[in-house]
Write a structure and sequence with these properties.
With 199 residues, the protein is an alpha+beta fold. Helix content is 38%, strand content 25%. It has a single domain, classed as Aminopeptidase (3-Layer(aba) Sandwich). It contains eight helices and seven strands, in the order E-H-H-H-E-E-H-H-E-H-E-H-E-H-E. Bound molecules: coenzyme A.
């Protein structure tokens, strides 16, 4: 029986794997800014913040990750100089395209920055484990809820979020931006209240 585990950070040796899972899951969203080839994988691996990602393992191998907005930063340290080093003079517009994906967390919420599970390991509960751990982390930090967003072309992810108790708080049509980031037309914000953690 495979043994699943959950960790608060990406181990150093799994940096590449975490970047690959993220790139694969968010291929359409990231393509416009980072391309689709090796340079995207390199960029993500180089700029990943292991301490702002939860990771799920099966038999010790990282098979799922969840990016977190924590301590004023996100799961990837994206800066203009970093993009310039990787992409040269096209860094400027790439930065702007990425900026369109950026969201600011509210002070009393843990904002998730994308959950990605290895396609071969989906449907085994790893996504659920990652969401549970995010709730525990939020409660430990004295935050009141976990927030995430999901697009209309991803009904299976939405079904998972609803199953574990997330509720819709806002939906927005994003026709132009949606085309740029992979063909969706609506973004829905969902939240889950977390019980206060006894201190
Ligand atoms: C969404 C995602 C993280 C779910 O991870 P997971 O490990 O398969 O989730 P779980 O096994 O805990 O739960 C599976 C449930 O989620 C839903 N689900 C979402 N995507 C699924 C998939 N590709 N295969 C199977 N179930 C999926 C189903 O409703 C399923 O419910 P069920 O078990 O009652 O049939 C994963 O499918 C994924 O990485 N997708 C690509 C990236 C993505 O869309 N991320 C979310 C962006 S908002």
């Amino acid at each position: 029986m495979p043994l699943a585990g959950i960790h608060r950070a990406v181990p150093a040796e799994a940096r590449q794997t975490a970047a690959r899972l993220y790139a694969l899951a968010f291929d359409a969203k990231l393509r416009a800014a980072l391309g689709a080839g090796d340079e995207r994988l390199r960029f993500l691996a180089d700029h990943l913040r292991p301490d702002r990602m939860l990771c799920a393992t099966v038999d010790g191998r990282v098979r799922g990750v969840a990016g977190l907005h924590l301590d004023g930063g996100t799961a990837f340290d994206v800066t203009l100089p970093g993009l310039f080093r990787a992409y040269g003079v096209s860094a400027g517009w790439r930065f702007l395209v990425l900026l369109g994906l950026h969201r600011e967390p509210r002070p009393d919420e843990l904002l998730l920055d994308g959950i990605a599970v290895d396609p071969a390991a989906r449907g085994q509960g790893l996504g659920t484990l990652l969401l549970r751990e995010a709730e525990i982390l939020a409660a430990e930090r004295g935050l009141r809820r976990v927030r995430l967003s999901v697009v209309d072309t991803n009904p299976r992810a939405r079904a998972l979020y609803e199953r574990v108790g997330f509720v819709t708080v806002h939906s927005e049509r994003v026709d132009t931006l949606g085309r740029l980031y992979g063909g969706f037309t609506e973004v829905t914000d969902m939240v889950k209240e977390v019980p206060a953690c006894p201190r």
